[in-house]
Design brief:
By secondary structure, this protein is α+β, with helices and mostly antiparallel strands. It has a domain of 229 residues: Serine Threonine Protein Phosphatase 5, Tetratricopeptide repeat (Alpha Horseshoe). It contains 19 helices and 12 strands. The protein has a 4-stranded antiparallel β-sheet with strand order 4-3-9-8, with no helix packed on it. It has a two-stranded antiparallel ribbon with strand order 1-5. A hairpin with a 2-residue loop joins strand 8 and strand 9. It is globular, with a radius of gyration of 24 Å. The two termini are 34 Å apart.
Length: 593
Amino acid sequence: MNNLIKTIRYSLLITAIIFSTARCKDSYLELKDPNSISEANFPTTLNQVNLLIASVYGVQHHWGFYGQNWLGYGIYCLDHTIDLQWRGDDSWIGICTGLAQSTDTKLQNQWKALNRGIYYANSALEGINKYRAIAPSSEKEEIDHYEGEAIFLRGFYLWHLLSFYGQPNLDGMGVPVITTVPKSIEEMSVPRASTKDTYQAIINDFKKAASLLKGQTDNHRATEWSAKAALAKTYLFADKKDSAKIYLEDCINNSGKSLVSFNAYKMMFNGNKQYEYNSESFYEIGNLADPVNGNSYGSPMTGTTTSMLYAQFYIAADGSRSATSYSNEYMHDRNLTRFGYNDAPPLTQLETNGTNWNLKQSYIDQQKERREQAGKQVDGPDPRLWVCALQPFFDSVKVSNVYYKVAQAEFGKWYEMAPATLNNPNTFYGWPTRKYQYLDGKLIETRNVAGYNFYFIRLPDIYLMYAEILKSSNPTLALEYINKVHRRAYGYDPNTPSPVDYVSLTDRTKAPVDDHLANDPLLYERWAEFFGEARWWEDVRRLKMGPQEATFYKEVAGGKGKITWRNEHYAMPIPSIEFESNTDPGMKQNPGY
């Protein structure tokens, strides 16, 4: 626990800010002398236990996890949410194309962050057990809740560790499972558990957390339903469908969760507090922007700097493109076709009058109609396109309280393309992503630390997992749960038949005819509903869709990187530094690295 105590000394103010809305009303700063904290006298109060738990939550903001690396340096590259604008980083291109390198620090920080989360959780559990021995009986329920939160978070970090570094086959190599605080170098040397056994460890944590968290109602923290939803998902991924079905039905029938409106769905990913912690969220990572103490290049921080890597461009007053932060990523153009958007690239729709460049009025009218009639045109795109991405020349972003039109993710004037980017104006779209994007100004205005929340499990995930389990035994009911998600996306009542309903489990989707999602409403809805939420990669691994996805996306970086699938790419390389301290013969590198 000693390292955790050092962190607590350093992070008192930060954790106080993060949990200012938490259930414990006493200030974290009421310790008479925080610098006197030691293993001998900590924890001795319930507030100090709460501080331990706050530190476990705090790892979610770690630079190697959702603080920065997880999306733009990891999952967004693997599932091709993004493409790369700058083509000078071969290792970054390699992550996108299947040629990740074991020496790449972009893939090492996730390992450090997630293992830190597990270590902090184990340290917190050690402290909780110590405090139980001296706590009054009146505090039992609160102590149980704190223990449940720590166990839930341990399973949460282990889930992400497995999703990034473990092999998808159940008999493959998972990741080390550590449930106590190592007391020596020897105890730090542990083997990799199998993927099946890693899932079982996660199941054990979520199941125990669900029991301990009964009565916990603060949705800013982990609750019983957070654990049950996560448990259902883990059972499905572990191919224990009967158990998954039990918990999915429990979440559907007893959690009190319901789908929000389409408008609320569109508004819930960009830091608007009115729409976060909503009726369909089972667990989310809470973030706060920090324009005073924010630190985009490390910790501590109360928010996230992920969108620094994929910040949007806008058209400045002089016609040039300007970025709202450092930015090297934009939505991969192939995602437009998968959403059913097939209109001409904008730079093919230019007209000029001397030195003045404009978009053709016919194109402007067409695009405005697309947006106004979203979901109502047979040849129009899925309405979720405008939830997930910003359309250049039509969407606007605020900069210094002035609204500017969004630009294509490129360089130079808005009507030109820089030759060095290798982009072809006759084929290039360059839409910035919208989910988990800061839209209220230049990100630098908050020291590059934004306050949008990240969602781990939402009710649509529960519905679609339930449909997956039912599709063979009860295809009619499975189709109904797929349609609930689909109807909401098109602005209809989720519980009432609508004109946009799929009529079969092999009905035509918005994906192009050569896409493996073209006649698979279940998988298409999983892709479209959670696009940009770092969930699709989990399904790509589980269902072994790597070859099909590589065929669909084809290339990145203006053609500089051709996506060539290899099965080793389902698991990222474990950092070499791990093998310097972990000498157990069962600690092996993933093949191909």
